[in-house]
Specification:
The protein has 356 residues and is α+β, with helices and mostly antiparallel strands. The chain has eleven helices and 14 strands. The protein is globular, with a radius of gyration of 20 Å.
């Protein structure tokens, strides 16, 4: 795949009047089977499965024009952000083998999120996949075409931020090689849109913002700590088994298995953080209170609602759309008090990245 894209790279001199703009939105995603630990060039130690979200997304605009050298201006939510600019510049310059025309561009990038940054919602997934899709649009303009290859978008999104490779696809995605999916790959994600039972196609995700503060430990650092985690080998084996079991549950609409695996995966992720050296705890006391309250609600009401966690304190409450009124009332009555400023986001399974 990589050799194909090297061969297809646009290597001509850009026209002097080459200029334009492109704008994409890409959503965050929430992993059900977690990706935690990597190898090689941003490759996963185990396969993962995620819901693609709808409301939590990044909107990115890129304005470009021909220049005698590469330059980049970047703003996030209307303000310069040097840390983000440096990360984007590094990624772009590392991809010049595939996109040689980068050296001929003056770029002005504007980006904004619809959700709190660095609070356990995968902002790097949404932002970097949106950026890659803009980059592919510029390549298409240089070639005089208008086609976007989503597999290619997933491949380069992965190089920017591992979980970003899943965000380009609608509904659900799988990233990582598994015998349970014939076209699966460590290099890019594949769509599960046509693999899932109807109940999962409009699943809801209510995201309870326990804290909107920046995480004390980045996901990148957390992945690195898996290299010495004493439970790493067992974790990777369990995740591979869970992918196979969850795929079966998604295909058949088995909500009981879905709930069991999803909650187990969430707790394993945070247990791995606590067992790392150095160890760290990203859950907050109110995270645990929400989990306990939700499990009691599920037992009392006998409805298929469950939770998952990303690498942060916030709680994703997952449930079929038909139970939305009951669950949202429960959140407002019982759980809102645990949210920072009463903030929670009513989200759900979405349709993936799109041009704006």
């Amino acid at each position: 795949m990589e050799q194909r894209w090297i061969k297809e790279a646009y290597r001509n001199e850009l026209p002097d009047d080459f200029h334009g703009g492109t704008r994409w939105q890409s959503p965050s995603n929430i992993a059900l089977v977690k990706y935690w630990g990597k190898k090689g060039k941003q490759l996963p130690q185990n396969p993962s499965i995620s819901f693609t979200l709808s409301q939590c997304r990044t909107e990115t605009s890129v304005f470009y024009e021909k220049s005698d050298k590469f330059s980049l201006d970047f703003s996030f939510e209307g303000k310069p952000n040097e840390a983000f600019r440096a990360k984007i510049e590094q990624f772009l310059l590392e991809q010049r083998e595939f996109f040689p025309f980068i050296d001929q561009l003056d770029l002005r990038i504007q980006s904004r999120n619809t959700f709190p940054h660095s609070s356990g919602i995968a902002s790097s997934a949404s932002s970097m996949s949106a950026l890659v899709l803009c980059l592919l649009d510029i390549e298409s303009a240089a070639k005089g075409t208008n086609a976007i290859d989503r597999t290619k978008a997933s491949y380069f999104s992965r190089l920017a931020s591992g979980s970003a490779c899943r965000s380009v696809f609608p509904k659900m995605a799988l990233w990582g090689t598994t015998p349970a999916m014939n076209d699966s790959s460590d290099d890019y994600a594949v769509s599960l849109e046509n693999e899932i039972a109807p109940v999962f196609r409009d699943f809801r995700d209510s995201i309870l913002i326990v804290s909107d503060a920046q995480k004390t430990v980045s996901s990148r650092a957390g992945h690195t700590l898996m290299d010495t985690n004493p439970y790493a080998a067992s974790r990777y084996a369990t995740a591979k088994q869970n992918v196979s079991l969850l795929l079966d549950a998604l295909r058949t609409g088995d909500l009981e298995t879905f709930i069991r695996i999803t909650e187990s995966e969430a707790m394993q992720l945070h247990a791995l953080m606590m067992c790392s050296e150095p160890s760290f705890i990203l859950m907050k006391p109110d995270t645990l209170k929400i989990i306990e309250s939700l499990r009691s609600f599920r037992r009392e009401m006998d409805i298929p609602v469950c939770f998952t966690l990303d690498a942060g304190p916030n709680v994703h409450i997952l449930y079929p759309a038909q139970y939305a009124e009951m669950v949202e009332r429960f959140i407002m009555d019982e759980l809102e008090t645990y949210c920072t400023g009463g903030l929670w986001i009513a989200d759900g399974v979405g349709d993936g990245a799109s041009r704006l």
